[in-house]
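Model it.
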Amino acid sequence: MLKALSVKQFNEYIKTSIKHDPILSRVYIKGSVYNIRNNGNHLYFSLKEDEDIIDCVIYYYETSDISLDFNNGMDVVVKGNLLLNNYSSRLTIAVNSVDKDGLSEQYLKFLKMKEEFNNKGYFDENNKKEIKDFPDKIGLITSIDGAAIVDFISVINQKPNDITIKLLPVKVQGQKAVSKICKSLEYLDQLSLDAIVITRGGGSDIDLSVFNSREIIESAFKAKTPIISAIGHKIDTTLIDLVADKSLQTPTEAGSFISRNYLDIEVEYKKYLRQIQAVVQRKINLYTLKLNVLSKDLSYKNPYRKILELENSIKILKTYIDKDIQDRFKDEKLKLKLIKARLEASKNLIELRKKQISIKNKNGEEIYSRFSVKDREVIEITFSDGSIKAVIDNG
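Modeled.
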């Protein structure tokens, strides 16, 4: 019976095998650059061919000898040593040479499609649909397993609102994701929603490539419902961001945008509610006092008749209170508008008058400096509403 190896023994065996293998110890690999990232010391990126990926790293002490003039989507040939990461058991190429081989076919295809859609007007601001200030019917397309759905809904629930969300869970990466997202868009577009949010919790360029597919871009552009994209990336822009009516970075930002105006409504509502309650309470106190006085007369007056009179009086008073509340609300609102308009007009007038002051000497020449006048010299000061003469007194 064979003796089992420990994890450490197995990793050491793999490392030794790589070290003595003439192909693996010194590798030359060609691929398309994706997902470039820098952690402050080392430069990390991936090489991709179709769906196959291998990780690469350029250590900080190698950068002086390596040309770093390459970008995502570019074909390169790297030379380096194959390493095994003990913590992740992943194979990584420690790169010591990078040679450019031009843009990859896939990236050129992306650029061509981007230019095609741009020429068709898919990204024009004039074609963007307006999103309501207070949307209350939202469609949500995202993965049911990701953090995006939690981030999006939790932000919306932080404010009182009447927003309802129609969730269609889909895959957000892989070949099957494209058709699922397109079908979800077409379905939600028929429900008369205020907006459709397409979101995911971020990922590498490869993970996000599904949102550059022609089918999704065309479906988003043709939709009658405004589209909001929140793909969870901070650097690269996908085509869905360009065609969307509103592009945001994260699911959290999308939730904040949807519910952005509901806090203002809550504050204003509470303010007016307090005012109305105060008016009503004063009326209630007043009429309570009157009812107490009238109740003392019931001992020598017809109770039934008095009750009918009081009921009718209360109805009239209620009508008066309702009308009084409405009239006060309108009057106060109008006063605020008038005050604001007057303040703005006064401010503009003051600023205008400041700019219209000029000072001239007796020869009519403009004076711009205190050093241009002499003691006891007569000057003329012109304001917007008239002129005065003054004599210089230097003390």
